[in-house]
Amino acid sequence: MDIAEDLALIDALCARDLPAGHSGYHAAWLGPGDWPDATDCYAYEAAVAERLTHRWGEPSRWGTVTLQERIARGEVIPEPWAMLAALAIDLRTWDIPGSALRVTLAVADRNGEDQPRLRVFVTDIDPP
Fold it and tell me: How many Å apart are CA 93 and CA 53, to the nearest integer?
């Protein structure tokens, strides 16, 4: 996949109805999936983020350490945020103007043994 295809995928995810209930989100992997080098994944994330920032303004950037601590204490964190905390260390989230939706990019890099992969989530569930 290239960036144009991935942006079209993000648009398609934003256009789809979200599942009802407590798991109202869509997710997809972005990019080729098998990066020649881990740094290529982070560069691709930056390139996608740049285009989303051009569309929707600066994202909220935050780490998932606090979510991990809250989960470890037994707090129930709603999806997709619990999954994001398990996958990634850093998140970029854009609130879509005129919509209840937010788009989050996350490099799944928490497992240091696997090569990182870029994931996108579209949800109307507020971050915890």
Answer: 10
pTM here?
A: 0.91
Q: Sheet with 102-108: list strands edge to edge.
A: 25-30, 117-123, 102-108, 88-95, 60-63
Residue-wise burial string across 88-101, b where 16 or more C-beta atoms lie within 10 A, e elsewhere: beebbbbeeeeeeb
Amino acid identity, position 44? Y
DSSP string, the chain: --HHHHHHHHHHHHHSPPPSSTT-EEEEEES-SS-SSHHHHHHHHHHHHHHHHHHH-PPEEEESHHHHHHHHTTPPPPTTHHHHHHHEEEEEEEEPTTSS-EEEEEEE-SSTTSPPEEEEEEE-SPP-
Instruction: Give per-residue pLDDT as tens, 33-86.
Output: 788 888 999 999 999 999 999 999 999 998 999 999 999 999 999 999 999 999
